[in-house]
Amino acid sequence: MYTLDQVRCFVAVAEHLHFGRAAAELNMTQPPLSRQIQKLERAVGAELLARDNRRVRLTPAGQQFLGESRKLLALAERAPEGARQAAAGTRGTVTIGFTAASGLSLLGPLLSRIRDAEPEISIELVEMVTSQQLQALEEERIDLGLGRTRTAPEGIARRLLLSERLVLALPSTHPLADPEHRPVRADIAGQKLILHSATTAQYFYDVVVKHFDIDHQLVQHSLSQIMTMIHLVAAGHGIAFVPESARSIAVPGVVFRPVEDLQEEVVELQALWRRDASHPALHRVLAVIAP
């Protein structure tokens, strides 16, 4: 295996095409310089320099190796600084798990804030429901979660990022969609419902049943994805309860109406991370999004 010192010697000779001038640049004499080049050629397995008593020139192998050698030396120069930046958290990769619903509201602005404040930190995104995020945090497959949960395991820290209202998604022809009508909670009595799944979307399910009197015999479908729910509303299969940020989904035939007697911001989105996380870049990201 060759060394960086041997590569530096080769680059100096290749640039000067003269052993004497290269040796002077490197503050060494010609014999050890020649030995370094010979060792390098043996390690590479090819003659890099053709030399005789009058001149030195690069062989085809040497021309190819020169370009790669310059890249190698530049990388070696940058590596210590990159390591220092990674240790300080100013460079690195943070993997974020996020729910599809968080993409409707907070994800885009959060990524912009991180990019502007920490441009050398790379973000990898993985879409997963909150229960999957908690498992991935436990297994250290992600660094940060953007999820919704009432409780979290003891080793998981959390911080509120966003709270918003729950609104009704209605077919545009539905009586409750009339702009003159102001829906209240009692209006859902007798309505066909598209509800969140009690298993795969437990957070939303719990919020809905806490604030509305749900007749489960009227539930047409139980789902986990808000986008799918809204499309079923458009098809006339029922009405749905969605976070206010879902208004950004422009689906023809669907309107969104607030519930007059439920003005509280009952839907929350939280940042989730391991309490024992030591990743410096993660802590810099947290300082940006959840100071």
UniProtKB/TrEMBL annotation:
GO CC annotation, single: protein-DNA complex
Pfam name, any one: HTH_1
Source species taxonomy: Bacteria, Bacillati, Actinomycetota, Actinomycetes, Micrococcales
Family, similarity comment: Belongs to the LysR transcriptional regulatory family.
HTH lysR-type domain span: 1-59
InterPro entries in UniProt: LysR_HTH_N (IPR000847), LysR_subst-bd (IPR005119), WH-like_DNA-bd_sf (IPR036388), WH_DNA-bd_sf (IPR036390)
Domain of life: Bacteria
Keywords noted in UniProt: DNA-binding, Transcription, Transcription regulation
GO molecular-function terms, A-Z: DNA binding; DNA-binding transcription factor activity
Record's protein name: LysR family transcriptional regulator
Organism: Brachybacterium phenoliresistens
